[in-house]
Each structure stands twice: as structure tokens, then as C-alpha cells.
């Protein structure tokens, strides 16, 4: 599946519509509920250009199409602090290789599966809109395949597992004491992955839409 680059202003416009709609639904103040929760996330993925060094002495930069991320989570809400485990998949494609001032049309499927333990702090207030911030650490498995330059195949498939972490923040909208929706921004990156014949990096930014439901509350 190919994810073509979409101008950021389209996401900003869509985000504004979503926020206005959610605020209209959550205008009444909700009492917070502590307890176990489950949820899911989805959103666009923006991968930074990555330097690549191969075993043949070549150095070039890879750029990527706008991708997609989706995942599930489960955790516990202690009140102002939340802790959860988050399993997430990332999908993107290599768009171009750039070297020595030249740019070459390229293709390559990139898939990442991460498992992170996260902690979030909620800045509770007297409204149903709660800002939050937090971070997480864990592992990520990075899989690349079908790498081609100018239509010619240069590499098959490879995978590696590396350390990963994220930082981020956003706002939570309480639609009811048990059902909440988040809109947030996260920076996700890994330690530099090494494949069979090349070394690179993975740094990305995510616009995340999440939903949480408290299964058991206090």
C-alpha cells in the first residue's frame, strides 16, 4: 500500500474540525474516574529523512512518504497519572534517495512494530478538556523490503529489533466519565538500526487520535 504525502495544512484543518466537534459534545464537566482502561490509536506518520551508510562505502539520505500508525493500549488511571502498555504498528514507504546533490526515485516498504511502557500526567482542571504530557520506552522491530532505485531492485528484505522511546502531549476530551478521546502529538524514535548491509536511523512525528474506555472505575 502506498501512502502519498499529504500537505500538513489538510491535517491541521481536519484536526480543527474534530476538536470543535468534540468540544461541543463534551461541554459539560465530567468527574474523573480511576481504574483500568483499554483503547486504540490511529494517525498520520511523518518520518524524518534518514542518513544511510552501507558496507560498500556509500552514503545517502532516504526520504519517506507520509505513512500511517495504528495500535492498541491498556493501562491504569490513578487520577492525575496514567500508566499503560502500547502496541503499535507503523507503515511508510521510501520515496527517494539523495546523494551528492542528486535525487533518485526509490521505493521500499518500511514497517515498524513497537511495544512501549508509557507514563502520562494529566493536568486536571475544572473543565472536561484535560491537557496531558508524558513519555515511554520499549522495543521496536523494523522491517524493510522490496527496496528499488529507478525501478531496479537493490535489496530484498531484512529486519532488526532496537530500543525505542517516545515523548508527547495533547488534550483529552471527556465524553462521559468512562469514555475519553485524545488528540495529541508524539515524537517517536529508535536507536540506530543496523541491517545486513547498511546502517540508518528512524525518527518520526505522529499526529495521534486515541479513544479510551475505563473498564473498571473507583
Shape: elongated
Question: What is the helix tally?
Answer: 1
Second CATH tier, the architecture: Beta Barrel
Would you tell me the structural class of the helices and strands? mainly beta
Strand content: over 45%
- The run of helices and strands is HEEEEEEEEEEE
What's the CATH topology name? Porin
Largest sheet: 8 strands, antiparallel, barrel
User: What's the overall average pLDDT, rounded?
Assistant: 86
Give the end-to-end Cα distance, rounded to a whole number of Å: 44 Å
What is the highest CATH level, the class?
Mainly Beta
Annotation, overall tally of beta strands: 11
Low-confidence stretches: 1-9, 15-30
Kindly state the percentage of residues in helix: under 10%
Order of adjacent strands in the largest pleated sheet = 1-4-5-6-7-8-9-11
- Please indicate the count of domains: 1
Could you characterize what this model shows?
There is one protein chain. The chain is mainly beta and about 220 residues long. It has one domain: Porin (Beta Barrel). Helix content is about 10%, strand content about 70%. It has 1 helix and 11 strands; from the N terminus they run H-E-E-E-E-E-E-E-E-E-E-E. The protein has one helix at about 10-25, and strands at about 35-45, 50-55, 60-65, 65-75, 80-100, 100-120, 130-150, 150-175, 180-190, 200, 205-215. It has an 8-stranded antiparallel barrel with strand order 1-4-5-6-7-8-9-11. A hairpin with a 6-residue loop joins strand 6 and strand 7. The longest helix has 18 residues, at about 10-25. It is elongated and about 60 Å long. The model is unreliable at about 1-10 and about 15-30 (pLDDT under 50).
